Every structure is written in structure tokens, then in C-alpha cells.
Please model this.
Amino acid sequence: MHGKITIGIVLLSLTLIATACAGSSSPVAPQPAQDPVNLTPVSQTSPAAPAAAASAASVSPKPSGPIKATEVVPILANDTVTIPLSAVQKDWNVHFLVDVPGGKQSFMAYNLGDQLYVRASICPPCRGKTYSLDGNTLVCDTCATTFNAQTGIGIAGGCVNYPKASVSYQVSSGNIVMKVSDLETAYQNTLKAGLP
Model:
């Protein structure tokens, strides 16, 4: 009798594991280009798919105070640039350079609450290239000009008239995927005073 119960428990466990594995193999749907990705952790007791729970579990707790940008190295292949989503989930604020025919261009990706944003990362008057994420603001590490992290629009400081243009992206296979042309457009728009 005891052996039948043990076999029953083992079979039930294998069935649950197989079901969980089958549910996690479904591909991640690309996100709309302009909509930030929702990074809200999913409760383990939620009826959400196991893949979503496993992915959300890798989001690190937000550090207190300003978050300096961590450098990541993007992968450039043909007309796309990718950076790992896990880097943004872990560090909250990352900076990366893209080598294009006109030279290296600077970009940032960061979490704001439970959303992901990608923007050009250049302050034309002061030539600053990195920003700290301080609550709901981006702070230029060179001139201390502040920008609304949700909209990219300047709040106060010497470079306030140069909003940080957003970059269209998709999330696919654990990567943030961007087109080189979209990155270049955002960078060029950020070099000009005012909104595009």
C-alpha cells in the first residue's frame, strides 16, 4: 500500500513538472514599439504562466538613492542592436554605445517603477553622456540638468531644452531589440533643441 502511494506521488510530481515546462516554452510576444515593458513581479500564487513568474523573479529590488548607469555592451547585427533585458532588470539603469557610420552614439535603458524605457543619452550643450536615475528624474552626470524620466522632457538646468528622445524597441528571447535606424533617429532628435 505504501509503495502505491509513493508511486502515485512521483507520477503526480512528474505530471506537474511536465505541465510547467510545457507552459514555459511558449514564446514571448514582442511589445509594441512605443509602450514600455511592464516589469512588475508576478506572485508565485498568481494564475499567470510559469514563464512570466520566472522572468519577473529576476528583477532586483530597486536601490535607494540615485542609481548610476552601468555600462553594457550591445550586440550589433545587421540593422538591429540588442542588449540583455536581465541587465536592466538587475541594475535598473544601463548605458550603452552604438557604433554607427557617423561615430559612437550613446543610449540608456532603465526601469521606472514597473516600466522599461530606452532613450538617447546625450546632453548637447555640456556633452554629457550618462544619467543617474533619481526617483522619477534623470540627472545628467556632467551638468546636473534634470529630466522627467517618464517623458524625457527637461525640468531644470543648463541643458533643459534638449529632451531625451525615446527609442522604439521590442523584447524578444530575453533581449531588448532595437533597429539601428530608430536609435539614430532618437539620437539626432536629442541633438536638437525642443521636441521633434
The chain has one domain: 30-191. The two ends are 75 Å apart (CA to CA).
